[in-house]
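Lab meeting notes turned into a lecture example. A postdoc, R.K., suggested we walk through two folding results consecutively so the class can see how the record format repeats. The first protein's sequence and structure tokens come next.
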Amino acid sequence: MRPPCRRVLPLGFPGSRRHGCRRVAVGHQPQPDLGSRIGKAMLLAAWVIGLLLLLLLFQRLLRNQENPNQHLVATLDAAGQPQVILERNRAGHYVASGRINGKPVVFLVDTGATDVALPLAEARRLGLRLGARRMSRTANGDVLTWSTRLDSVDLGGLQASGVRASVVPDMAGHGVLLGMSYLQRFDLIQRGGTLTVRVPSSDGARD
């Protein structure tokens, strides 16, 4: 026995056509549920937010690898002398955040440089006054620079005043070479992958 026909719509419903015993409405497809659409939108938004968080985490990881000393704070050694301990970055350099004249900078420790050395663009950002032209010795050799003097140089709380500096016109980037005009005022102790910069004891104070 053939199953009885099922009528979906009454005969004569406008815009309908026959398909055997069934009548299917043309132009009356069921609309997506509002809750379903909101759920899909929330899922897409969660996916985008997750992707952005992953990107930010990756960028932060790269910054930490380039500059593992972004939040230096001076501590006291066994003798009560203030010190900061720098870690090498993935390239084997000592890179650290600090301040010049109260403004944030990124230092690259360079014991081969006579003075603190800055790119011209960074000197302008810091509002430094350029002095006489002279030759300065850096790790890359002798270069023609402008002389200047920094009111203060701060590395994790180890502050020095009146620090001699050189402004290098064709120095790339925005990093500052932290040379011996600052470093010579402290004791430097290198062990493994760390460099300790320590205030000398009173009997060994430096100029």
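The second example is placed directly after the first for contrast:
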Amino acid sequence: MFLVRRGCVTPMLTGEIRSQIDAVWNAFWSGGISNPLEVIEQITYLLFLRRLDDLQTLEENKAARLKKPLERQIFPAGKDPKKRPYQDFRWSHFKNFAPADMFTVISEHVFPFRSARHASHVAATSPEQQLTV
């Protein structure tokens, strides 16, 4: 369904999509996040992590198909300095964790890992290349 307003065609939210959005909003609200900007920020970060996991999966599938090593590895093998497996940082893994464990993985492991990766990338690139990060 679409809504036509001022010459623009805008898709309308169906009942199913609307209820899914409400469920996400209620989950954030019950978790203590009621500011819409914070909700958008959190959803954006989770989508970013999911995309990184998708990219890693594509690289793994490509390497297996071509029988070659990974060209680009987003999540390295092994464990982080706090002894958490890097594989736990992947969306496909942590999405199944209990909420408390998921929070721990994101806050104590994923954030520092991504910050360190970003910092090392920035240090190794020119100012022009940094704009593409």
